[in-house]
Design goal:
Order of helices and strands: HHEEEHEEEEEEEE
Structural class: alpha/beta
Shape: globular
Largest sheet: 6 strands, mixed
Number of helices: 3
Low-confidence stretches: 1-27, 205-209
Number of strands: 11
Strand order of the largest sheet: 2-3-5-6-8-10
Radius of gyration: 17 Å
Length: 209
């Protein structure tokens, strides 16, 4: 755990110290952001659908990595879309157990090094949440306008730090397909701080009493 934390600090320090306009990137990807994505991949212990197979140390242009979109002008990553198919989509293709295609592991702190990340979709990875509470650090991704963490198997309290994401237009953290997981909020006042929000899905979380 200490080694992983040190790696993240080094990645974040590198991302903080570079000038986006003057950095020389290898390919069209910032080296610090490429390192952050590889750190995210390292936290994934199982990828049965091979969605991250293109994420390789020697492949410097991370804009070409599956699920990653970078700005053509700055090279910075602004979109990460690793959405899994829904159970109904899998059923239409004869797949009986959608969980067998879900990413496993943990959502890495290294995402914080993606300072221009505006779009994050990890939805339908039904066991990536591993019945744990949603990570509080997600509330520090303050460039986000779109966040979809629905049906990921998160369980427990919804972090009020999500109220820091003042640019959010779309927020979906429901659990439509994961009936045995229960997310709740002790205080929903954080929602009032999301003044740009146009779409909200919490899948009717129950407030604790």
């Amino acid at each position: 755990m200490a080694a992983a934390s040190l790696l993240f600090v080094l990645i974040l320090a590198t991302a903080s110290s570079v000038d986006c306009a003057s950095q020389e990137s290898n390919g069209s990807c910032f080296s610090a952001e490429r390192a952050a994505l590889l750190s995210f991949k390292a936290g994934i212990t199982s990828d049965p659908g091979n969605r991250l197979v293109s994420w390789q140390q020697g492949h410097h242009d991370c804009c070409r990595w599956s699920g990653v979109t970078s700005s053509s002008s700055t090279g910075q990553v602004f979109k990460l879309d690793l959405r899994n198919h829904s159970p109904t989509e899998y059923e239409s293709h004869g797949v009986k157990d959608p969980k067998s295609h879900s990413l496993r592991g943990q959502v890495s702190l290294s995402l914080l090094a993606l300072r221009r990340l505006r779009y994050l979709d990890l939805s339908m990875n039904t066991i990536l949440g591993d019945a744990m509470a949603m990570p509080r650090f997600l509330g520090s991704l303050q460039s986000l306008t779109y966040l979809n963490l629905s049906n990921m198997g998160f369980n427990g309290i919804i972090p009020p730090q999500l109220g820091n994401l003042s640019k959010l237009v779309h927020l979906d953290i429901g659990n439509v397909y994961s009936y045995h997981y229960h997310q709740y909020s002790k205080d929903t006042s954080w929602l009032a701080r999301l003044q740009s929000l146009e779409h909200l899905s919490l899948c009717q979380p129950q407030q604790s009493r």
